[in-house]
Structure formats: structure tokens, C-alpha cells
Amino acid sequence: MTLNVGEALGAYRLVAYLGEGSLATVYKAYHAALDRHVAVKVLKPAFQDDASARGRFQQEAQLSARLDHPNIVPVYDLIVQGTQVFLVSKYIDGETLRSRLGRGPLPPVDCARMLGALGAALNHAHARGLVHGDIKPSNILLGADGNVYLADFGGGRLATNELARGAPDYVSPEQARAHEPLDARVDQYALGVVLFEALTGLVPFRAADARGVIRQHQTALPPRPSALNPALSRDIEDVILTALSKEPALRYTDIASLVSAFHKATAPPRPPTAPLRPGAASDVPGTGQLPFTADLLPASPGGPSISIMLTTGTGHVFRLANQSEYLVGRSEPSRSFRPDVDLAQLRGMELGVSRRHGRLHLEAGVLYYTDLKSTNGSRVNGARLYAEIPQMLEDGDELCIGKIVFRVYFGT
After folding, report:
1. How many CA atoms lie within 13 A of 161 on its CB side?
2. Which of 29, 192, 213, 266 would disulfide-bridge 40, Cβ 3.0–4.6 Å?
3. d(CA 246, CA 219)
4. What is the pTM of this model?
5. Contact yes or no for 88/75 (Cβ under 8 A)
6. Cβ neighbours of residue 269 under 8 Å, at least 6 residues apart?
7. Distance (Å, whole) CA 393 – CA 410
8. Active site residue ranges
9. Using one digit for the tens of pLDDT, what is the confidence trace for 259-277?
10. In order of start, what are the domains of the chain with their CATH numbers?
11. 3-state SS assignment for residue 260
12. How far apart are CA 107 and CA 89, in angstroms?
């Protein structure tokens, strides 16, 4: 059964071709009853009678149903129609990372944002005993809204010694060997390959055929990323090569550790006017302390002993130092309401900032941010936040309010 744009597939009308993989073709479709567009993945005709391929589709639907995360593409339905099986999932307006890399490598800061989102998605899956097992650029979706999504859990398993092999360019050595215990570190290795490719434009191993690539994953050392992109720092390079260690025990202990190390390696230099970070070494040679100006001190005696600075890439700075809680949003000329951090002056309405977008708050000396059910959401280091669930912020984290990006610095 070959499908064409314009045909109906059950309750769904195919409106556009989106792409295809080895097993399936993906279409954009319209569901009239719910008045929304969805993505429909359909098995190719050659696999419609293949019990294994049909089983993978069913497994993807079942595994995705266990996951509820803003950086994971949700599957809505699994439908069987005669010999045909198709998956219905959320339609993401944007492009795949594979498509984006066709225009060249990504800057490190964009890789850091993407990795933050992917790391949050994988942490969610790994905490539930699920390994993805097939991470590659075509399974990473870059939404037009700035969010990043991980798709296609069809290769994953709850029983981690039964993982599918995955794409040859991104397969971990232990996956390639087969018949040995596997864990979440196979996803870390694949992310290392994705980062290598995203920053250099090339995968680390190439050969005449898939078997040759797989053999190199098992036995060959990857080239240093800086040999392909001299602009990469040694710190960034070391993070990638650690993720690409042949032995799982030599990689990071978990995805969160990889994400944290990469964010630190790609963070811009700390501004000299930023507050003193707790336990920091001196940024001023020979002085034993950071510059600390009066405007960063608590404005009232007995106030919170922590100062916060929000800085944008355009040079705008908000210094906060006399409250334990700050409402972040935008004012409007017709209303008397004004948030503590007013982003109206930064084109807040145009850039998707809600009037009551989020809240910065201190608890026991720890800084948190909570999204307050904003229309366009908030992200920390690229990971989209659940509404009304506090997210701890570390010194130097990137906080995105709507489409306005801040770097957060805090100290005593």
C-alpha cells in the first residue's frame, strides 16, 4: 500500500511529506475532529508484513506512553488498519538536526542549549529504566519555537541487554559487540558522536561500508575535534572525547554530568561586575577576591545575603539584591501591574514574555526559578521547564524567558 499526499488514512488526511527512514515514511497530517495537525509515521510497503517491524512500531508507542516530558515528542496513538500500522504523534513545526547540519556546524553555545534539552529528556527516560538506543540527528527535532525534542524510542528497551543496534555512525562499542549488558551510557556515547558532528560537520569515524564504521567504533580512537574545527577549546574537546570513551566506565557517570561539563566548557567568561560566587577563586590576580561594588550589596540591612545579576547578550543587566523573591514578566502601559524584573523594555511582548512569566526565589541560600504557566514557556540551559515546578539554578546558568536569553550569576 503506497500512500500519497491528499489521501486519507483513517481519520487523518495527509497534507505533506516530511521525510523517511529505513523502515518508515513520515507525513504531516490533519485531524479534522480535533482541528490539529499531527505527524504520522507509516511503515513502508516492504515492511508491512514484517512482524519485527510491526512489533517495533507497537513498542515505540508503548514506551513513549510511559514518558511525559516537554523535550520528548509524545505519541498520541497506534493504529492498525489491515496490514498497515501507523503511529500518530505531535507535529513539531521546525526541522531535524540532520537538516540543520546540512547548512554547516553549530556554534558551541547552540550545542549547549540543544544538549541541555536532550539531557533533560534522557534523564527523564533513564530514571524510568528506559534507554533510547538510537540517538542520531534525524531523531532530534529543532522546533521553530526554540524548543528541542527527542523522537523515536522505537529502538529503546526496558531490558537494556536487548537494545537494537542503532545507526552505525552513532552506535556505541558495547552495542556493536552485542550480547553484553548495556545501560544508559550507550546514549551518552551517541550524544558524544552527535556533539562531535554538530561542532565539526563530520562524524568521527568513516569507512567504505557500515561494517567498517562499526569496527572503528570498537577499536579506533576518534580524531581530536579541534583538528577539524580549530576554534574549539581544549575543554570542549575533552568533554566530547570523554563521552566517546571506548569503555563505559571511563565516560561520565550519567547524562547530567555530561551536560554540566559541556555547559561549563562553553560558558562565556564571567563578567567582572558579576557578584562574588560562593567559594570562588579570585578572578583578580593577587587580590584574593573578586571585584565587589556597592550596588551589588543587599540594599537593606538584614536583607538576603545573596546578590543576583541577569545579563543578556545585548548588554542589558538586571541587578537584584534586596529581596528573597522576584516576579519576572512585563508591564503594559494600560495596566498598573509592574513585575520586579520588567522585560517590557526588552521588547518583552514581541519576544513572547507573559505578564507574570516566572519567579526567581531564594530558599536556604539556593536560587530557584519557577515558570508560572507562561504562554511561551521558560528554559534553563536549553531544557524546557514544566510549569510551577521549581528549577534550581547554578551560577552561570542560561535562563530563557520566552525568547529573551539571560546568563544568571549569583553570590554572597
Report:
1. 3
2. 29
3. 8
4. 0.84
5. yes
6. none
7. 9
8. 134
9. 999 999 998 888 887 876 6
10. 8-90 (3.30.200.20), 95-266 (1.10.510.10), 294-411 (2.60.200.20)
11. helix
12. 30
